[in-house]
Amino acid sequence: MSLAAIERKIIALEGEMLAAVTREDFETAARLRDEIVRLKGGTAVRKPPPGEMGLGTQVPVVEPPKGWKRPNKPNLMTTVKGRKR
User: Fold this and answer.
1) What DSSP assignment string belongs to 30-73?
2) Residues 16-73: pLDDT tens digits?
3) Phi/psi of residue 51, each to 5°?
4) C-beta separation of 37 from 43 below 8 A
5) From CA 8, how far away is CA 37, in angstroms rounded?
6) Nearest C-alpha neighbor of 46 from the set 65, 25, 30
């Protein structure tokens, strides 16, 4: 698709989205919004698949970056030299 064709498609989808909101058809409006974001090159809000949800919430579980290791816990029984009390 050419850039001009994508722009025309986005304008048409925005009009459909506004019409869906006017009709209070929010599911269709959300689908059109996600399509517009995809055409613009962004990332749309996705619904996480089953198993990725936190317990009892609608918030996806946050995963640390690949290769990240949890830092060691400090030993509370040791003293820090050079620290003034």
Assistant:
1) HHHHHHHHHHHT-----PPPTTSBPTTSSSBPP-PPTT--PPPP
2) 999 999 999 999 999 999 888 888 876 555 666 666 555 555 665 567 788 889 888 8
3) 100, -15
4) yes
5) 14
6) 30
Estimate the crossing angle of helix 26-40 against helix 3-22, to 10 degrees.
160
- The one-character DSSP state at 20 is H
pTM: 0.49
DSSP 74: P
- Over residues 71-82, the mean pLDDT reads 77
Instruction: Name the token pair of 18.
Output: 């506004």
Give the distance from CA 63 to its chain's centroid.
13
